[in-house]
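Hmm, what's this shape?
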Amino acid sequence: MTLFNGLGMGLGNLSRLSKAKTRSISPENFTGEKGKGAMAEEGTGAHPARELGKGWKVSPSVEIQGESTHTMAEITGPGAIQHIWLTCHPNHWRTSIIRMYWDGETEPSVEVPLGDFFCNGWCERSDVNSLPVAVNPAGGMNCYWEMPFRKHCKITVENIAEENMILYYQVDYALTDVPDDAAYFHAQWNRSNPLPYKEVHTILDGIKGQGHYVGTYMAWQVNSNNWWGEGEVKFYMDGDDEYPTICGTGTEDYFGGAWNWEQPKGEYRTYSTPYLGMHQVIKPDGLYRAQQRFGMYRWHVMDPIRFEEELKVTIQALGWRSGHRYLPLQDDISSVAYWYQTEPHQPYEKLPDKNDLEVI
């Protein structure tokens, strides 16, 4: 994780003084202005605070109307987002879209369904114990990706459902100088449902500019029997054509596991570590849950994938068939790619509608 101007993301920098100004935006202080917190007289907590009044948790959250967008934070820079915490009902994790815009962009640099951004793409809570993303009981979602901006930052949440949603949130940031070599944070969602036979799932494509790839989250539904994780992750960069520069050895290998994640025999073993994990297994129940579903993340914090001009990332869906032969799979695969790069970035493909976003 990068450091600048005394902003520490490691214990080794905590003793260093800095002229950075710490600020925080929440429904108790929508602007983050100094000395303007806890002044609300109306809000979602007004009724329980009616005997206590101003300053007593009058506005801990917001209600976002159906098919509308709420601006969660708007900040004049230079500065950097250091931490985001939020929570809402899991029913909204695929029907709410978080977007982030840097320095006056009209096209977002981050555009991801809310749950997937925090490694919970199945609308069923799974704890995550990693450095840049932590999800804690019972649905507290935390992000520690450093997000510098030079002039302006805007973060929105769009509720694409017809029903209203309640969102609790806090955005912690610093107003500080940003060095010339600090890149902008990006994240993009993609889905193959189902993945066409003998095709690969594209995690990221069309990236132009200089930067480094820092993470992958995948929500994977297996639509066949037997082991499914033989597929390789491939990174095509800076002029690679048919063959990539970086090619992994298998799906569970990329996410830091081995041998089917099978421990003890006949069972998947979940794990969540600072940089990688297979933290979620949703099993069929013999009634309405028909397929196995998995959640996995891999953070390239210590080993970023650096590119100078362009980047494409893919993964094969590969299992086994008779005769000890590979079987190209036709699974339901969603992914989030996280990376830093120079601006401007190429516009993303439009997100699908809520039917194609839906967890089915």
